[in-house]
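Re: beginner question about structure tokens

> Can someone show what the tokenized structure looks like for a real chain? I only ever see the sequence side.

Sure, here's an example I had lying around. Input first:
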Amino acid sequence: MILNKFLTVKKIAGLSDRTLKYYHDTLSNFLEFVNKPIADVTIDDVRRYFAMRQIQEGVSAQTCNNERRNLSTFYTWMSNEGIVKKNFIISQFPQIKTPKKENAGIHTNGNRDDESVH
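And the corresponding structure tokens:
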């Protein structure tokens, strides 16, 4: 299976077991979702997958971005191996916007809640 070949290459490259498991889980879930030969996967399949992850499964935009990065790495590797023509993830599926984090305790004057202004 192509996924096993990819994981073997990444293992040889020195990736940690934890990273390999994350790649495996992400890519297995994606391939199961699309349920078609990798050469037949379209950008619409990718969009549907990430919409399902966010809407039905409630995963965060940050998690989707991490998984998108894994999928993009997989497609780059497949492109380099001649399995697919190109990595369309990079050009056609940009990162998902994540909510900006509020910097708790900092006010516009630059002072923290516990600092007094003299």
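Each token stands for a local structural state, so reading them left to right follows the chain. DSSP finds five helices and no strands in the chain.
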